[in-house]
Amino acid sequence: MIAPLLVCAWLADTEVGPEAAPPPPEMVEGAPAPPTAAGTRPHAIHVRPGIEAFGQYALRWTNDGQDTRWFHQFDAPRVHASLEGDFDNARARVVLEGVRSTGEGSLVGVAGDSVVLRLREAFAAYRFDFGLEGAAGIVPTFTVPELDGTWMLRVVSASTLEVSGLGTPADLGATARYTLPKKLGWVGLGAYNGEGYARRELNRGKTLEGAAEVHPLATVGVLPLAIFASYTYGSSGVDSARADRLTAGVLWQGKKLRAGALLTYGWGVGPDGQRNAVVLDSFLRVDPIGPLVFGARASSWLRNATTGDSVTTFTVSAGVKIAAPLEVHIIGARSIPSSTARDAVPGSDFTETRLATRIVF
Amino acid sequence: MRAHCLLLLLASSSLVACDAREDDARETEVVTAMTNADEPAIRTRPRLSAGKYARMSSAPFSFFRGSLALYVSDWRLSRFGISHSRFGGDGPLVPSMGDPHFENFGTLQAEDGSLGLEPNDFDAADVAPYLWDVRRLATSLALVARIGNVESEAARAETRASARAIARSVAEGYVDGIARRERGEALPRVESGEGNAILEDLFRRARRDAAGRTELESFAVLEGGAHRFRRGVLDPADPSQALLELPTFARAALPAALEAYRPSLVVRYPPGYFRVLDAVREVGSGVSSFARLRILVLVEGPTAAPEDDVIVELKELADANLGPFAPPGVFYGSVKERIRRTTTTAWARPDGDPRWGVTSYFGFPAQVRTEADGQKTLRVSRVEGAAGTPMALQGLGRVLGRILARIHGASLADAGRIGDAFAADPQGFADEQAEVADAYAAVLEADAARFARARTRLGSLLGMAPEDHRSPDLLDLLSESP
Q1: How far apart are CA A57 and CA B456, in angstroms?
Q2: Are B26 and B261 in contact (CB under 8 A)?
Q3: Do A72 and A61 form a contact (C-beta atoms < 8 A)?
Q4: Percentage of chain A surpassing pLDDT 90?
Q5: With left for phi above 0 and alpha for psi between -120 and 50, is residue A121 left, alpha or beta?
């Protein structure tokens, strides 16, 4: 997987002219190299740390048909710490994320059920001057980050594609992304293990993702309008259960208004390779005046495209930017399952209110 | 040069494109559900996991016992209508056995020596919708009806034809039990066969072996006035079951584990009662928990005399892995608390097995229980002759359904909520459960064959690879050493 990237980098290196900066000292005469070279090279000064963290209080009322139960808790749904370095056209990024050491419903975890750190992204990338960037490692995929990045309100809710398990924001693999000239968008191709970034590879098949974001009116000054489409040809599990996804939609990526309406069709859901699922997702973010931010999202996840087994969710939020890096949002959400989904996933019929903060450095 | 780079990337991508995907999607689904759930065990204890899968491949009911993860997956995906109901599949949430089935019930001997029919496996006990248990239990009876009577095709044809009625009997017993709990009646402990051929056979054998303390003879030998466990394969007909030498460090940790376990018991035993006389690693027991650590411990008992020595089994515990059934997704503070609370709730009397408690062993949560031949489990292999008639199975179904109602209805408030769910149409409720369970049992019978086929195709670990670097001590403890 990394080989093509290395070859590309080597080929690119042969094009570097005599005016390029001299390489840093890599070979030390008469001494062994350090056990890990991280932080020992002169260009380590180009590494920048970063933080993104969400903190929230959530109060949820769950309806099981007869009773309504409530539960409330403080949580830190996202804790990301990043290091990013770039030098010449090379770039590296490592993102650590905090997660519970067990899944929900589990009692056996690490030191109780501590929040532990794991890798969310860890990749090396090389950007050619003509607009192509290749990356390898634990890389962001194209589709989920596109939805999150357009809405820019991940603190309010994750994309329905991610919540449904039909998409993952990162995976082990390699990507190539070509940025079109004249701000027309980008096209990308990725090859991944296909099990997501939290699991190791389980089968010989690899998952391929092709994606494109096109701004058709960029040349006439309407830059925010974008059309996005992606197709994932994938498999998951030891027996290569089908996991193909087609996503297409329209986006608006403005400074005051950001919105999207997308449809995802999935062939294969979890272990059931014959089941098809559909996600309809629409969202809106408005930054009307000053520090105010408003968001809304409506989504429907058809867990089984042929039976209408579905979960529909409505989310609204109002937020304020207290300081440049800090936002506070109040959020209301209502999840309405069909009767089949309610039976299969007890707890999916709920109303929730949250107070959430987001800080980014 | 740049064009070469692009071509190279594209070519490499096509080279790694997907394998051909399997035609039998259900076979893939079975394999995926199992390996997703078992991955940690497969990675860290491959030999034991391979043993589990070999056992699951040996018979349809063994497959059923080992495939709770498939039930979880099918429930979540609403496969075969297993989670859908006119009577509220999502609730009420109740204290659940998690995995109630025909072979998870048997006799337990209380402190006064009396025997009672009780649930005897709480590995998956948690909080779940009431229908979760009802359908799992009804399905198991329908499956027994389909595959029992191994010796007689004619008898098997008869029970197969009655599978739906047999599954229905579980729901009937459950409805009756919940109604009685709603009225505030106690559902008494089942202490005899009550004329049912299956239960008569169970209690007869249990009383015989309880009186003879035959486990001391089965598992141990008397040498120089003291009992000592046998080592090796005890039954040549089943070489997968064996008692193995326990590593010294593992033996040394037992007294502390047993001392920590003593306070979890409802009966107060003196410290000397659990003085360790001998201990062995037990392999090849169970199906679902085949890969878990099990140790048989011979302890002193009431006196120093060898006749009243007692054998207890220490078994590693793990998560129930049913949920989450929100809110809040976790209903107990620890695995040990989950087991301790569900056992005392489930049994008709708190000392159902007075030596059933919990402890920690090398950081593993563990359960300790009596290992005695008088504690017999219902077995599909005994469903033959008089114990293999539709009437016997229906009678048993009603009894087990009532026991389940007793567990779910331990709180009168819960009993009321459950009763409300089907009060308008109890007959329709029983019909629905019978229909779903019978249909699902047919799927599982075919799934057992799919699983065996997949194991042949993918290998003993279903295509998953073990971890390269594992702790030597853990390997010794689990008898996984090369």
Answers
A1: 51
A2: no
A3: no
A4: 77
A5: beta
Q: ipTM, 2 decimals?
A: 0.87
Strands (E), B35-81: none
Residue B405's φ and ψ, nearest 5 degrees, are -65, -35
Check: CB of residue B62 under 8 Å from CB of residue B293.
no
CA neighbor of A148 nearest in space, from A158, A139, A140: A158
Q: β-strands B242-245, A257-269: how paired?
A: unpaired
A293 CA to chain B: closest CA distance, Å? 30
Alpha-carbon distance A148 to A335, whole Å? 20
Q: For residue B347, give both structure tokens.
A: 């049994």
Residue ranges with strand state E in B276-417:
276-283, 294-299, 310-316, 357-361, 364-370
Closest CA to B32 of A165, A105, A273: A273
Inter-chain CB proximity B12 and A4 less than 8 Å:
yes
Contact check, Cβ <8 Å, A107/B92: no
Residues of chain A with Cβ-Cβ distance to B129 below 8 Å are 64, 343, 346
- Which 8-state DSSP code applies to residue A108? -
According to DSSP, the residues that pair with A318 across neighbouring strands are A294, A330
In degrees and rounded to multiples of 5, residue A150 shows phi and psi of: -75, -45
Give the tens place of pLDDT for each residue, A159-202: 999 999 999 999 999 999 999 999 999 999 999 999 999 998 99
**3-state class of B395 per DSSP?**
helix
pLDDT tens for residues B222-265?
999 999 999 999 888 888 889 999 999 999 999 999 999 999 99
Residue A176 tokens read as: 């190539």
Point out the residue among B10, B30, B92 whose CB comes nearest to the CB of A67: B92
- Rg, C-alpha atoms of chain A: 22
DSSP-H helix ranges across chain A? 3-14, 143-151, 160-163, 339-344
Cα torsion B131, B134, B137, B140: sign: negative
pTM of the model as a whole: 0.91
Residue A182, classified by CB atoms within 10 Å of its CB into exposed (0-12), middle (13-18) or buried (19+), is exposed
Q: Give all strands (DSSP E) within B82-163, no chain letters.
A: 93-96, 105-109, 115-119, 126-129
d(CA B407, CA B5): 66
What does the alpha-carbon distance between residue B184 and residue A280 come to, in Å, rounded to a whole number? 49
Nearest residue to B331 via CA among B99, B107, B94: B94
Q: Are A299 and A280 in contact (CB under 8 A)?
A: yes
The helices-and-strands tally (H runs, E runs) of chain A is 4, 18
CA distance B344 to B333: 16
Q: Identify which of A69, A237, A274 has the shortest CB distance to residue B32.
A: A237
**SS3 category, B262:** helix
Write out A250-288 in H/E/C secondary structure.
Answer: EEEECCCEEEEEEEEEEEEECCEEEEEEEEEEEEEEECC
Nearest by CB: A104 against B85, B323, B462:
B323
DSSP A270-334: TTEEEEEEEEEEEEEEE--STTEEEEEEEEEEEEETTTTEEEEEEEEEEEEEEETTEEEEEEEEE
How far apart are alpha carbons B480 and B251 in whole angstroms?
Answer: 17
Can you name the residues that pair with B68 across neighbouring β-strands? none
**Cβ–Cβ below 8 Å for A240 and B462:** no
Report CB contact under 8 Å: A107, B328. no
Cβ contacts of B449 within 8 Å, gap of 6 or more: B60
CA-wise closest residue to A175 among B9, B17, B4: B9
User: Please, are residues B56 and B66 in contact by the beta-carbon 8 Å criterion?
Assistant: yes
Token code pair at residue B7: 């071509």
The torsion angles phi and psi of B78, rounded to 5 degrees, stand at 55, 40
